[in-house]
Known about the structure:
7 helices, 2 domains, single chain, binds ribulose-5-phosphate, Alpha-Beta Plaits, Rossmann fold
Amino acid sequence: MKTTGGTDAQKRRAGESAAEAVSDGDVVGLGTGSTAAHAIRAIGRAVDAGLDVRGVPTSFDARACARDHGIPTVGLDTVCGPDGPGIDIAIDGADQVVLTGEGGDVEEVSGTLIKGGGAAHAREKVVDAAADRLLVVVDPSKVTNVLTADVPVEVLPEAHTTAATAIRDAGGEPTLRRAERKDGPVVTDNGNLVLDCSFDAIADPGRLAGTLSAIPGVLDHGLFVDMADEVHVGDDDGVAIHE
Ligand code: 5RP
């Protein structure tokens, strides 16, 4: 899994802060990555103390983490079916989140982020979008005023060359993500490949999101436009909550 920037203590503060927003009886979307894992552990401790929640994992790793920490899990199709309760709250990490205005001051949460460092963005987007509230948990290295990180694009294996050509035509530079510990590409939980696409500064994330979604063979991409309701930024002293 690609990890970036901040310290584990910063990530822990962000994750634990968001976990405090979970209430008794909630169905909770459980994000993927090292920061979201801190939230899952904190929710697990609350479950030990009597909190009644059910978790909807966004990946194989999130499911394993939830089970290791005693959180009962439930499938998206069960809770989001016609008679299901839906998802009350989702807590997820990010690789970059737009938070600051031109001068570096926090103006308002745009709710737009890049995800997919853990190659889980397709399922994360489904769960995060289905939730009534999405809380994003990050360390300060993820905060920006303009998105510049590579955009992960999950593609059907057969389509990775044609999709790469279409991404180049759209002004991006795609690189097939390789596994760190073994020879070969990263394969997602859905059996697909990931193209990490550099676009330099992304001036219009909504427009780029539409362009990427329209490419044949693209399952989903890591641009989450206008999705976050709150951003919890953990730093060395505490947590700033932006809503
Ligand atoms: C997984 C993700 C992660 O949430 C994102 O990569 C952040 O990870 P971390 O908290 O480990 O830095 O999008 O697909």
